[in-house]
Amino acid sequence: MAAGAAAVGTKNDFSKGSVVGSILSIALPMTLAQLINILYNIVDRMYIGRIPGYGSLPLTGLGLCMPVISAVIAFANLFGMGGAPLCSIARGRGDLQSAERIMGNAFTMLLATGLLLTAAGLLFRRPLLYAFGASDATYPFASSYLTIYLMGNSFVMMSLGLNSFINAQGFGRVGMMTTLIGAVLNIILDPIFIFVWGMGIRGAAIATILSQFVSALWTLRFLTGKRTILRLRLSAMRLEAGTVKDITALGLAGFMMSITNSIVQVVCNATLSAYGGDLYVGVMTILNSIREIVVMPVSGLTNGSQPVISFNYGAKKYDRIKTAVRFMSAVGISYTVLVWGCLHLFPTFFIHIFNDEAALVEAAVPSMRIYFFGFFMMSLQFSGQTVFQALGKARYAIFFSILRKVVIVTPLTLLLPLWVTPAVNGVFWAEVTSNFIGGAACFSTMLFVVGRELGWKIALPLKRRQAVKK
Hints:
mainly alpha, 0% strand
């Protein structure tokens, strides 16, 4: 039995071979999976934005649901992104039993929380949507979509949360299939439900939930099968207070990133509704959709780096962690600089993906150029957060999530419209400010804190280096 466990423990050993190769072996399938996932989200919104007879109202209604969807993702991240690094660290130490216990407890919390969110969301959806900026014109669309989505949000949480444990074991291609199955199925079902059967925005919600149900079944089948390193067992699903505490403590970083996104979406939509009406809520829906597209490669890269960093931290291979951080940061910055240039030069191309209504496009072009200004600073936030979370330093990751979204973006979203003309531009400048301050603070703190712990040699100014030598 011990020999078998040792043999299993040597699979996907990230402490050996090329660091960059290990990262890419996970990041490329994950990025492709996210690309497919984004594709089906794009198709979803393209269809919704072109439901005949309603203009941009259905797309705006979907945008009003985004804070709730972000909240569901936040809880999936709480237990998925909280448990997966702990599994990697335990596996790096060779403790497979503890790793399986962590995964089993995360599964139980994902299921229980999904059911609670369904009940709470259905009970309070009307006051929530109006608080989020809904009008009498957009509420019917938002309510129709959200009601169906909430009925199946447990499937969303399962597919997202459990997929983190598949990727953490190094099965990037299997994790990619989780997303691929749901995405392809959704792309096929969307036009059938929306247009052929005339179900409109309700059809889009049904297609999404059915797709996520199939993805959830796929993850469960793999994690209970023979190919997995860590198996999902009934004996590991019984909650243990210490294990749940450790998972939630580390998962709070990913949770805060998503829940603060939800808070910012609420504040942005409500503020834009007050100053610009339904038109600018639609603009923000499009900008958020474009952001999902362009952030995807950075997200895939950082998520792919996390298991490698966590494993080598457990194995005490600190030089390999340094190599991983250098690679992740350099590629992320280079990519986001390139994207920033494309978005600034060709805004109309990206806007037309979702809607070509003249008034919406006219309002969206200047808003987009402001919103994505200095976009490369966001990659610093992603890199810093990833390292903190991979090494189990939850309090730093949580702090910088709160700093960027709660301390910086939310107050500025409310205040800048009072000082900026036109007022709606203040909402978009708030995001820019948070990227610069939050990104710089997170990344520099990560270099100092992690570098000091792991014994990295930080480059010193020439005069100081000479003084040290003397």
